[in-house]
Amino acid sequence: MAVVNEDTQGNVSQLQAEVKRLKEQLAELVSGQTPPESFLTRDKKKTNYMEYFQEAMLFFKKSEQEKKSLIEKVTQLEDLTLKKEKFIQSNKMIVKFREDQITRLEKLHKESRGSFLPEEQNRLLSELRDEIQTLREQIEHHPRVAKYAMENHSLREENRRLRLLEPVKRAQEMDAQTIAKLEKAFSEISGIEKSDKNQQGFSPKAQKEPCSFANTEKLKAQLLQIQTELNNSKQEYEEFKELTRKRQLELESELQSLQKANLNLENLLEATKACKRQEVSQLNKIHAETLKIITTPTKVCQLRSRPVPKLSPETGSFGSLYTQNSSILDNDILNEPVPPEMNEQAFEAISEELSTMQEQISALQAKLDEEEHKNLKLQQLVDKLEHHSTQMQELFSSERIDWTKQQEELLSQLNVLEKQLQETQTKNDFLKSEVHDLRVVLHSADKELSSVKLEYSSFKTSQEKEFNKLSERHMHVQLQLDNLRLENEKLLESKACLQDSYDNLQEVMKFEIDQLSRNLQNCKKENETLKSDLNNLMELLEAEKERNNKLSLQFEEDKENSSKEILKVLEAVRQEKQKEMAKCEQQMAKVQKLEDSLLATEKVISSLEKSRDSDKKVVADLMNQIQELRTSVCEKTETIDTLKEELKDINCKYNSALVDREESRVLIKKQEVDILDLKETLRLRILSEDIERDMLCEDLAHATEQLNMLTEASKKHSVLLQSAQEELTKKEALIQELQHKLNQKKEEVEQKKNEYNFKMRQLEHVMDSAAEDPQSPKTPPHFQTHLAKLLETQEQEIEDGRASKTSLEHLVTKLNEDREVKNAEILRMKEQLCEMENLRLESQQLREKNWLLQGQLDDIKRQKDNSDQNHPDNQQLKNEQEESIKERLAKSKIVEEMLKMKADLEEVQSALYNKEMECLRMTEEVERTRTLESKAFQEKEQLRSKLEEMYEERERTSQETEMLRKQVECLAEENGKLVGHQNLHQKIQYVVRLKKENVRLAEETEKLRAENVFLKEKKRSES
């Protein structure tokens, strides 16, 4: 872990500083300067692996904190993106519905200009309001929103279920346990390091290193356990991933089938609504016509009570009877009334026909509903199977691509192996020719062999003699080396003893000097105190002398009065004076003793300085001896190197002879193995060619099926176009016929105007009666509404196709974004790998330099320690050797861990490469689907343009027919006014013609319905 963390943190500067320091030490040692304690302290710093572990743990904590912060940022950004996507989708839906409403209202407004009555306008407005309410309900309960909510709910449930799984829980618990263990180990190590820092001067080196080694071993064991657990959890996760993938595929197939079923149901709802509206409008029209027929009077008051023909089958018979007897009852029939029994019979027949028709319609409707229900179920099953088949086809296509790639690789390998086979064949031929030549040469060489064997035996005896001599010399050299090693060890022991004695003397000297300095300071302080005491005593003596003088004067004055008191006072003063004089004498004796001790200490210091100078001279002599021993050791090492080189040369010659012999054997074995490999490759090539042939046959069959499908679709399109062209030709012929009729009617009107001028006076009373009574019923057809509804349904389907295209484009953009993110991550990982490899190479170079410098230092130390031969100390050397061995083992283990990490990184790279390949495949499939969609959309647009042209032509023809019909109706009214409803035969012909026109228009509407159904089915099959 220490080496890995050095590489990751980039601690190359520390290694460079260590290399510089070691170079400086080498230079100092070569020049002869020997720092006494720097080597030991620096060796301690080198082997301190706890610092590396602490650095690794700190770096791990920092990386975890950064990872947490980045994860939080990523979650926030994902939430924001989801919110924005939802907002955009809702806005798109709202805009789409508004545009649909606007287009519908514009079309209705254009259609309603001048053609609708106020009642019809109110009805249309109410229908539009109903549609607006339904659209609002659809917006509130949209299936996509519900689908997204269900998907989110299912994904959350899956996440919870995955989190509640036992392997995931176990992995989390194991991670938590390992983290807790590592944190405990880190806290213990930090506590140990703090205690070691506090007790660094007193704790020796030998106690720290075994603890660190034991900790590292424990941590390595924990690492191995964690790796095994990780591998187990990875296997479980992969198994669970496969199960979830299969389940996801099944759910997607079900979801798509349900979506298609929903779309079909929506289309059916819209179609049923349109059909119901049409039926309601037709029923209203029929009801209005029947009301008109019923309410029209059967007689004209002032036209001699003549019956009016009705839209029933009985009127036709009545007209025919009337025409037969018109010659006989020309004047009497006008006065006869129509019997009421006939009217009642007609009404009963009409009601019976209506009831039978309604029963038939209800039965047919029930059958239709049942069949539609069955069709929906079958459609769901078909959609499910289609989705499953598409998924299987995608899997097969991916597998085919993989197989083709493998086949290409195998073919390339086969070509390479064929080339190798040809080369080996040529080599074999060449070798056969050489063998033939060698056989010829062998006969001649056999004779020479006997002489060569004799020479070889003599040469072998001489070589054996030389080898024995060299072995004896080698043994002698090894003995000399052993002796030199013993001398070196003795010198090292003596050096260590001298170093210890020198250190002890220095410490004793320091301790004695400190004690003497303290004694001197104490003596000085005592002298100062004594001097101050003496000064005080002198002052007291002077004060007492003055006092004595005063007392003597007082004594002389008061001799007579106080002689006894003065005597007593003098005795007390004398006693005090004697005591103080004794104290002074004692202090003077102490001062003399201290001065004597000072002189003794100064003599000791001078003697110690002399001994130090002598020790320095001895050390200089020892250094000279060490340098002389170094020179002698260098000479001996040179002689040893020369002997070793001679031994190596002899061994190389012997090994080269053995290698040549083994190479010939290996060549023969390799050729045999190559022949076997070539046989296997040939067999595999034959199998691969058979598989390729089968695959090509399957592809051919699939291509032929697709061709047949495309030809059938093109035929259907051509049939549709032909039918549309036929309808156009029929309508053109109709327009021409109507124009011809118009011209005829105009001529008839002109003739009748002339007749009217002649018969004006005779028919004044007839015109008055015609002005008072209502006219015969009219049935103007309205077909624009049906065409508008058909156009609306087709526009809705086109808009649905556009919406599906936009959703697919959105999915493609998402996939491209994911691919770009993954590519960026892969590039970042590659850059990190390059940086890691560069750092590893630099660290390896620096370590090699460090090892070389350490080896040079060890050699110099050994040469230096050979000079000291007095005090043996083998344990320290053994400890140092064991430490160096442990360091090397630890370094080798660290290198192995680095190699393992590199292998893991290579596996991650391979996984990333596989993911990139999968992304590329997905993008290729998406592009392929996009091209297919674009082709389908272009075909739809072409069909739509053709349909729009057809509908425009139909609208023109319908407008022209309506204009012509209006003109015909106007002419008929004028004709009726002119004729005065006298010609019943002409009226019957007019009614028959109207019926025929109604039948023809009904047939045209049925054709249009059939075309619409066919187009819908075609669009569904294309989608």
From TrEMBL:
The residues forming a coiled coil are: 5-32, 216-278, 347-434, 481-611, 721-766, 812-856, 933-1018
Which residues are in the Hyaluronan-mediated motility receptor C-terminal domain?
914-1013
Which coarse location class describes where this protein primarily resides? cytoplasm
Q: Where in the cell is it found?
A: Cytoplasm, Cytoskeleton, Spindle
* This protein's record includes keyword ATP-binding: yes
The record's InterPro entries line, in alphabetical order, gives: HMMR_C, KIF15/KIN-12
**Residue intervals passing through the bilayer:** none
Q: List the GO molecular function terms.
A: ATP binding
Pfam families this protein is in? HMMR_C
Q: Which PANTHER family match?
A: KINESIN-LIKE PROTEIN KIN-12D
Write the protein's name: Kinesin family member 15
Organismal lineage: Eukaryota, Metazoa, Chordata, Craniata, Vertebrata
